[in-house]
Amino acid sequence: MQQTFDNDKRKLLSALCHGSIFFNALVVSVAVPIAILFVSEDPVVKANAKEAINFHFNVWLYGGIIGVLAFLTLGLAGLILGPIWFALHWGLTIWAIYKCLTTPEASVHYPFIFRLL
């Protein structure tokens, strides 16, 4: 039996999963997609929540690597890689929110990330 889901609710929850990374850079922001993953029954929303969780982990990983490189190079790597990381982090998140709002029937997949889930 085919089950239908509300597109407006799907758009809102999917965009909230991806946009939660703007709340803060701490662990609190990943709690939103984790909660939505457990609460929602919509398969597209669940896929978007998993992808958002994976993106959070990747942002933390790349930020940590850039932080260590910046420490080792006395800040030079941070001056060069920091703005690139920041632009990619924000740019990919804005792109994912846009994709969630324009094509709610498909889940978003970030390019160039490691997927743990």
TrEMBL record:
Domain of life: Bacteria
A Pfam family of this chain: MamF_MmsF
Annotated TM spans: 12-39, 59-88
Statement: the UniProt record of this protein carries the keyword Manganese: no
Presence of keyword Transmembrane helix: yes
Primary subcellular site in the record, as a coarse category: membrane
Protein name: DUF4870 domain-containing protein
Keywords assigned: Membrane, Transmembrane, Transmembrane helix
Membrane topology: Multi-pass membrane protein
Subcellular location: Membrane
